[in-house]
Amino acid sequence: MMTLDGLHFTEKRVRFKSGEVIFNKQEEGTKMYFIDSGRVKMVITAGDNEVILATLDAGDFFGEMALITGNKRIATAIALTDCKLNTMDKKTFGENLLNDKRFMMKVVESQAARLEETGLNFRRHLQRFFRMTKTFNITG
Predict the structure, then answer these.
(1) pLDDT tens, position by position, for the chain (140 residues)?
(2) b/e string for 100-136 if b means 16 or more Cβ within 10 A?
(3) What DSSP string runs through the chain?
């Protein structure tokens, strides 16, 4: 859980109602979010299926990837409950990274954990795929 002491925000306590979309996949990422209260899910869609990438609670943050890479959003963020969020735009994010080593380390740790989780998920999917190819005698 990230403590917000000493961090500067662009906006404080922006409100979203339960079920409201905070941002959509493929939108420009102009800010990141810190959950002051409430719960948020990060989802991607595959056809008609919604895949939940993460469920986030008070103290968690999200949306920083687009600020770091400059790319569009890779997932959709949806409020699971009524939420109060604090935001940082790219300029404020950069200033906080330079001025607060705790924050910088938390961002790095978060990125490393997400990369590790992605690798584990990829491995599980590959194992499932190889089991299916053996089961159904599929050769390529």
Answers:
(1) 555 678 999 999 999 999 999 999 999 999 999 999 999 999 998 888 888 888 999 999 999 999 999 999 999 999 999 999 999 999 999 999 999 999 999 999 988 988 888 788 778 878 888 888 888 877 65
(2) beebeeebeebeeeeeeeeeeeeeeeeeeeeeeeeee
(3) ----TT---SEEEEEE-TT-EEE-TTSB--EEEEEEES-EEEEEEETTEEEEEEEE-TT-EE-HHHHHH-PBPSSEEEESS-EEEEEEEHHHHHHHHHH-HHHHHHHHHHHHHHHHHHHHHHHHHHHHHHHHHHHTT---
For the whole model, what pTM was predicted? 0.83
